[in-house]
Design a protein that fits this description.
By secondary structure, this protein is an all-alpha fold. It has one domain. 80% of the residues lie in helices and 0% in strands. It has five helices and no strands.
Length: 106
C-alpha cells in the first residue's frame, strides 16, 4: 500500500517536472524568436514573461492562491487598448498561470 506522503511527493514531483519541461520549451521558443528579431519579438515577449513562473513552480514555490489572484487580475486588464507588446506579455502571463493552476489540480 502506498503511503499518503509518498503519493503526495510523487504528485509534487510530477508537477515540478511538468513546470521544468514547459519552462525549457518556452525558453527555447523565446531564444529562437529573439534571434530572428523583427516581428518575432512579439513572440519573445509572450514567452519570456513565462520564465519566472515556471522557475518558481520547478523549485516547489508555486503558491496556488497567489497565482489565482494574479490570474484574475491579469485577465481583467487584457484589452484592445494595449500595445501589441503589452498584449503579448499579459496573454503569456495569463497562459502560464492558467497552465500551472490547471496542472496543479491533478
Amino acid at each position: 500500500m502506498i503511503k499518503l506522503t509518498q503519493l503526495l511527493n510523487e504528485v509534487k514531483e510530477t508537477f515540478e517536472n511538468f513546470a521544468a519541461t514547459r519552462g525549457k520549451g518556452a525558453a527555447k521558443i523565446a531564444t529562437s524568436a529573439e534571434e530572428k528579431g523583427g516581428l518575432a519579438l512579439l513572440t519573445w515577449h509572450h514567452f519570456k514573461v513565462k520564465a519566472p513562473y515556471y522557475k518558481k513552480a520547478t523549485e516547489g514555490k508555486f503558491n496556488k492562491e497567489a497565482a489565482m489572484k494574479e490570474f484574475k487580475e491579469t485577465y481583467k486588464k487584457i484589452s484592445l487598448d494595449m500595445t501589441q507588446i503589452e498584449f503579448q506579455r499579459e496573454v503569456g502571463r495569463l497562459e502560464v498561470l492558467g497552465e500551472l493552476l490547471i496542472r496543479d489540480k491533478k
